[in-house]
Design brief:
The chain is of the alpha+beta class and 445 residues long. The chain folds into three domains: 64 residues, PGBD-like superfamily/PGBD (Muramoyl-pentapeptide Carboxypeptidase, domain 1, Orthogonal Bundle), CATH 1.10.101.10; 150 residues, Collagenase (Catalytic Domain) (3-Layer(aba) Sandwich), CATH 3.40.390.10; 176 residues, Hemopexin-like domain (Hemopexin, 4 Propeller). The protein has eight helices and 26 strands. A six-stranded mixed sheet has the order 1-5-6-4-2-3, with helices on one face. A hairpin with a 2-residue loop joins strand 14 and strand 15. About 6% of the residues have low confidence. This is Collagenase 3. Its main location: secreted. One of its GO terms (cellular component) is extracellular space.
């Protein structure tokens, strides 16, 4: 009896929250074929795509127990009548707080990527701001969180968002009681956010099970994910289309083959505990001990940066990453480019004859950054902010490493020098090459 009562309670709440079912506080005593309860179950079954029986069969109960969006399936947004949409094309968003489940940089990236899903098919831009107000406020909260729409703990409702408008309009809330991730376990923040931002732009739920706007949460493979035509039709009905995007173009670029025998990189650097590999207009990002690899356009992470970077390195103590192209360089913290950049490489002390650098590496033990140019390298003292007067030959400072190199980074005690389709593991203490590896050694090939 207790189990049956619990099922009935959850069923009533589900139909109340998502299908406008009202009991008026009175218990449903009889199960009539035309009762409001049966009609609402049929309505739910039809919308979700189940066999319409009006009964709480196993398939219906299974769907009711799945994680889902908190926005109702059949009711219009109660705050905004008609078809709500933004009256401007340049929208701002602000992340008010972070979940402890993920690194902040991963949250930033997931949110940015989720907005990109929509900006690729409609003529809207989404710009993150850290100060002042924003059109779309993003927050993580548990249970009651000041919007008269409390979350329900782990499972159930994972997030909800509000249609375009002033005040709370457009805002997206994520249930902190969920396990937020960037992978296939728990609740994938990117996919949930992309769904919720569809609501922030004015979309209702879709009946199509392969649609991003389908109310029940599911995980998509990010490498093969396509915005469904139903989603595209809906959002382009509200905001028209972009000329630059074909309707069924994948939201993710197709990556170069990381397992190919001739793989080379433009630059490699550590980045907040992970490794970034740059190639043309793309970059891969992975943790050294994980097989999972994230793949992105450089412009989707740092929109002003050019393609074909020459070099990159990180000063982890300052949480700063330096990125070089030609005679210019940028400094970033997470996905934010610091003000005042780009600057000229000659501001670092290079003579006018140096037009670009090939690779760079920060040696934390010595507090020096090594800049590799052709078959030589320059040493820059980070503490004194000064460059050595003359370069040295690479083969003298790093025995076994000869000629021009493509990229270099440090992992644990070793330096890894990339040249062509090979990389050389170098021990800076013993001053010798310890292993010769394929360039794709870091990838699950």
């Amino acid at each position: 009896n207790i189990i049956l009562q619990d099922i009935k309670k959850k069923k009533n709440l589900y139909l109340e929250n998502y299908y406008s079912f009202k009991t008026d506080g009175k218990p449903v005593l009889r199960w009539k074929s035309d009762s409001p309860m049966v009609n609402k179950i049929k309505e739910m079954q039809e919308f979700i795509g189940l066999e319409v029986t009006g009964k709480l069969d196993s398939n219906t109960l299974e769907v009711m127990q799945k994680p889902r969006c908190g926005v109702p399936d059949v009711a219009d947004f109660s705050t905004f009548a008609g078809q709500p949409k933004w009256g401007k094309r340049n929208l701002t968003y602000k992340i008010l707080n972070y979940t402890p489940d993920m690194a902040q940089v991963d949250v930033d990236e997931a949110i940015k990527k989720a907005f990109t899903v929509w900006s690729k098919v409609i003529p809207l831009t989404f710009t993150r701001v850290d100060r002042g107000d924003a059109d779309i406020l993003i927050s993580f909260a548990a249970r009651v969180h000041n919007d008269f729409n409390p979350f329900d703990g782990p499972g159930g409702t994972v997030a909800h968002a509000y249609a375009p408008g002033n005040g709370i309009g457009g805002d997206a809330h994520f249930d902190e009681d969920e396990d937020w991730t960037k992978g296939s376990q728990g609740s994938n923040l990117f996919f949930v956010a992309a769904h919720e931002f569809g609501h922030s732009l004015g979309l209702f739920h879709s009946r199509h099970p392969d649609s991003l706007m389908y109310p029940v949460y599911r995980y998509f493979d990010s490498k093969t994910f396509r915005l469904h035509q139903d989603d595209i039709n809906g959002i382009q009905y509200l905001y028209e289309s972009t000329d630059s995007v074909e309707p069924m173009k994948p939201t993710e670029p197709l990556p170069p083959n990381t397992c190919g025998p001739n793989l080379t990189f433009d630059a490699v650097t550590t980045f907040r505990g992970e490794i970034m590999f740059f190639k043309d207009k793309y970059f891969w990002r992975k943790h050294p001990t994980s097989r999972e690899v994230d793949f992105n356009l450089i412009s989707s992470f740092w929109s002003p940066l050019p393609s074909d970077l020459d070099a990159a390195y990180e000063i982890a103590d300052k949480d700063e990453t330096f990125l070089f192209k030609g005679n210019e360089f940028w400094v970033v913290k997470g996905d934010i480019i610091l003000s005042g950049y780009p600057k000229k490489i000659h501001d670092l002390g290079f003579p006018k004859g140096v037009k670009k650098i090939d690779a760079a590496l920060y040696n934390a033990n010595k507090g020096k950054t090594y800049y590799f140019v052709s078959n030589k390298y320059w040493s820059y003292d980070e503490r004194r902010q000064s460059m050595d007067k003359k370069p040295k030959l690479i083969k003298d400072g790093f025995p076994g490493i000869k000629g021009k190199i493509d990229a270099v980074f440090q992992h644990k005690r070793f330096f890894y020098f990339f040249r062509g389709s090979r990389q050389f593991e170098f021990d800076p203490i013993a001053k010798k090459v310890t292993r010769v590896l394929k360039t794709n050694f870091w990838f699950p090939c």
